[in-house]
Amino acid sequence: MAETDQTLKKTPLAEAHQQLGGKMVPFGGWFMPVQYSGLVDEHTTVRTKVGLFDVSHMGEVRIQGEDALAFTNYLTVNNVTKLEDDQAHYSAFCTPEGTVVDDLLVYREAADNFLLVINAANIEKDVAWIRKNQGNFKVTITNESDDTAQIAIQGPLAQGILQRVCDADLSEMKYYWFKRCKVGPVSALVSRTGYTGEDGFECYVAAADAVAVWRLLLETGAEEGIKPAGLGARDSLRLEARMHLYGNDMDETTTVLEAGLGWIVKTKNTDDFIGKAAIVAQKKAGVERKLVGFRLLGRGIARPDCAVIEDGIAVGRVTSGTQGPTLKQSIGMAYVPTHLSRPGTTLQIQIRNKLVDAEVVKGPFYKRA
Amino acid sequence: MYSEKHLYSKEHEWIEVDGDTAKIGITHHAQEQLGDIVYVDLPELDSEFVAGDEFGSVESVKAVAEVFMPVDGEILAVNEQLEETPETVNQDPHAGGWLVKVKLTNTAQLEGLMSHADYAKFVSEESN
Q1: What is the structure's pLDDT at B128?
Q2: Which parts of the chain span the membrane according to its record (chain A) (predicted)?
Q3: Structure confidence at residue A5 as a pLDDT band (50, 70, 90)
């Protein structure tokens, strides 16, 4: 682990994590806390109370100018014309073949000003992709990733704690809406979004303000038992909520439809976007494989790259898998041939030297009450 | 932290010898590296292993670690409580979190293992 410090990128909070006893690991080129008090404890704290995540490694790209709306709509598969000011949505960049370059959040600040929030490991690739596709669109493209920190406060107590230090009325803020406001003395963009399956907010602030906001939120939530949470809990939380992880559950070898993200692709009454023709054709023809959620019926944990077996032959692969700390069940996602994708189907998964049965299940594994 | 009663392997298993039988588990260091343990996979009774064989696995939410036999042995018992409470391996790795009890078939191999002092040194060198 000694080589990590030199070559990895650090968020403005790296020192704060180490002071808090965070166990630091390399993740997608970043030096990040995988856990503090322990993955299950952090996971449970987010489900029952509130946790604080440093997600400053995520990338932010701003698209501005008279064609900002048209260009963002061309780049991404969701319908950007439906967004109002201060509203965001989940979307993806696709290749002309309909495979996934990245998944992202699109924030509309104004008709000529959009913020795209992208995955940390894809920042360089995505920025190059955006620039390559600019064509004649009149926009300026700014990579704000290094100057922007992102802190997520997640859990049922998140609103109450954040409200004490935030001048926006959070009770008025609906899911996937946002406001420019103050957190303590700091200018922030606060959105009601997250990657945990709980209620919560994501606060975008200048990198220089990250430590102040991080400390303020930890102090403000101290009585309610707020805890810093690491990437380990972030992963188990998102998987229980059945949210996709780019690089595991989809990438440039899987189409957006195979990945089960058809719901973010708007092909009717929309302008052209990259990948549209291919996706329309794939919708018509149907897909040969699908990403499904499963729960293991036997004992064990199916890890990424475990094979899905049918009649002795590998026909699919697991992309994410864990023991869900809240569900107390072994769950995961896998690509399987379409005829094995119906909920209720029994799959066989090769876990090391054993074949373990799993059941295809529909929808999120965990849904908050 | 590392009991004097135990001998240790480079794969971070401990072994507690009692005549020609022994209990085997993973060390405090190993459980700490893994984090919250949620699943332990243990072998069938009577199965026979030689030193270096994988005899089971210990899994946390995030990772899986295979466990290896430090010596040749035949499985006499497995810690069945770990099926319900795998977290015992985190909480009490050197006693209540034992994994298997074996009949030793080659006691001479014990000489190749580390003392608690050597193991503590090994861990500190490995993590530097």
Answers
A1: 66
A2: none
A3: low
Q: What CATH topology corresponds to A288-361?
A: Elongation Factor Tu (Ef-tu); domain 3 (2.40.30)
Domain ranges of chain A: 4-58+147-240, 288-361
Question: A4-58+147-240 falls under which CATH superfamily?
Answer: Probable tRNA modification gtpase trme; domain 1 (3.30.1360.120)
A39-48 vs A231-240: helix axis angle to the nearest 10?
50
Burial of A203: CB neighbours in 10 Å, binned 0-12, 13-18, 19+ = buried
In whole angstroms, how far apart are CA A349 and each of A70, A310, A322, A334, B45?
45, 9, 14, 10, 25
Residues in chain B closer than 8 A to A34 (CB atoms): 62
- The pLDDT assigned to A2 comes to 42
A202 assigned to a ligand binding site: yes
| Any A CB within 8 A of B80 CB | no
From chain B, the residues in CB contact with A35 under 8 A are 35
The 10s digit of each residue's pLDDT in A214-270 is 999 999 999 999 999 999 999 999 999 999 999 999 999 999 999 999 999 999 878
